[in-house]
Design brief:
The protein folds into two domains: 120 residues, Urease, subunit C, domain 1 (Roll); 316 residues, TIM Barrel. Helices cover 39% and strands 21% of the residues. The chain is built from 16 helices and 17 strands. The strands form three sheets. Strands 6, 7, 8, 9, 10, 11, 12, 13 and 14 form a nine-stranded parallel beta sheet that branches. Strands 3-2-1-4 form a four-stranded mixed beta sheet. A four-stranded antiparallel beta sheet has the order 5-15-16-17, with no helix packed on it. The protein is globular and about 65 Å long.
């Protein structure tokens, strides 16, 4: 168990989708469980008294003038084994990329030594990039998938990990699949039990996630069984939905309906469900998303390569759909949510303005589609916590102390005082590199130590 401590820090977090809260020299008090128990402003009566108490007990951390505090990021969609091929073959169509590169790579994770090497590295690199909570696809292999959960726990990252379920011979290579629907369900249930045994070994905890890869690779038998497991164990669910022209059309042809309706009928849509990508959702799909309270894991980098479309974040959010942010390693080449924030804003701006210069500007784009940096910061923090039902993403009482300490001196121009406090936040979101992230704390533990 950790010791109590406090931080005197300036920083930022999102109050809501549009508004950012600026903290100036606030005192953030953290209890033995790594939770924020009190926050004092400089003008609070108890501020100085509390500060001196923590200082006298050698429990006070004071940020330098050129350092700020941000919440840790929540990455809602990471293919952990694919870290080994990040930056590879992104010029290929999705179905070719899967068949020629991704499935052969993931099949190698039966080798636990290889799995350990890759998984330790991907957890290290995402932590270094400020990701305090990661939602991971592992592989079909149960033992290697449990290993990933252990590595998250040991390294101090809050991990939501899924053993991939894929059993349809028509959509999977013979060398990389569950034997059949029954074994897919059985192995997933055994995986859930294995991770639940580990869950409380770590202060930040690790969690099992039911993970049908996507409908093209799963039989109806496995999808129905996985839906029943989700209800039985009350665990999270992750999958892909309407990712590209090819994937969206494949499911329509296979089942005669869109992904979202099919997933709903199989019991795989709900408050603990996350579907990645989803730019092709139709009105009927949106109604199901809203009614089920399912979250979209927005993957702006990989969407730019594979999705053939831009997710209309602003519209979907306005209709009541929760949307979090994700890197989608390795369809997204970068393990940094900072890159995801930047691409989310860029893509939305391109959606609004349109990209075909031969069309008149009046019809070229999608009206009012652009999101702001504040919006994207919200997706990366508060929305991720909401998707997972855990108190992360804000620097307030009752939230886990999951934070990044950012050095604003390197790589970031500061030749004069910014006109508005948010200007510095925006500089950081757009310019920060891994070297700017001095420390990353998860549940009150400094994972960089």
């Amino acid at each position: 168990m950790n010791k109590k401590f406090a931080f005197q820090a300036s920083g930022y977090y999102c109050k809501n989708f549009d508004e950012v809260e600026y903290m100036h020299n606030q005192l953030i008090c953290v209890n033995e469980n790594g939770m924020i128990e009190k926050v004092f402003n400089e003008d609070d009566i108890e501020y100085k008294k509390t500060l001196f108490k923590y200082r006298d007990n050698n429990q006070l951390h004071v940020l330098k003038d050129d350092e700020i505090m941000l919440p840790g990021f929540v990455d809602l969609h990471i293919h952990a084994p694919q870290w080994a091929q990040s930056g590879t073959a992104l010029d290929k169509p999705l179905e070719v990329w899967l068949d020629e590169y991704t499935f052969p790579l993931e099949a190698r994770f039966k080798d636990l030594d290889f799995a350990k090497e890759v998984y330790e590295d991907v957890v290290d690199i995402t932590l270094k990039n400020g990701t305090t909570t990661g939602v991971y696809f592992a592989t079909v292999d149960r033992e290697a998938s449990v290993l990933l959960a252990k590595i998250c726990g040991e390294k101090g990252q809050r991990g939501f990990v899924g053993k991939v379920a894929m059993d349809d011979p028509a959509g999977c290579p013979d060398y990389y699949k569950d034997f059949d629907g029954k074994s897919s369900i059985t192995e997933t249930e055994n995986f859930i039990k294995d991770v639940l045994k580990l869950k409380d070994n770590y202060e930040q905890k690790v969690y099992p996630v039911i993970t049908p890869r996507f409908i093209p690779s799963c039989t109806n038998e496995s999808l129905e069984g996985l839906g029943k497991l989700a209800k039985k164990y009350d665990v999270h669910i992750q999958t892909h939905a309407s990712e590209s022209d090819w994937a969206h059309g494949f499911v329509k042809e296979k089942l005669g309906k869109n992904d979202v309706k099919a997933l709903w009928e199989f019991g795989l849509m709900g408050e603990k469900s996350m579907v990645a990508h989803a730019p092709f959702l139709e009105d009927a799909d949106l109604e199901i998303m809203i009614a089920s309270k399912t979250t979209i894991a927005h993957c702006p980098l990989s969407n730019a390569y594979f999705a053939n479309a831009v997710l209309p974040v602003k519209e979907f959010h306005s209709r009541g759909i929760n949307i979090g942010l994700a890197t989608d390693i390795s369809g997204g080449y970068s393990p940094s949510i900072y890159h995801g924030i930047r691409q989310a804003v860029i893509s939305s701006k391109m959606l609004q303005d349109g990209v075909n210069p031969r069309l008149d500007k009046k019809i070229r784009g999608r009206k009012n589609a652009a999101i702001t940096l504040n919006n994207a910061f919200y997706l990366a923090t508060v929305a991720g916590g909401k998707a997972l039902g855990i108190p992360v993403g804000k620097l307030e009482k009752g939230y886990a102390f999951d934070v990044q300490i950012i050095n604003t001196k390197e790589n970031i121009p500061r030749f004069y005082k910014e006109k508005h406090p948010e200007d510095l936040l925006h500089k950081v979101l757009l310019l920060a590199q891994t070297g700017n992230i001095k420390d990353v704390w998860v549940q009150g533990r400094n994972t960089h130590e």
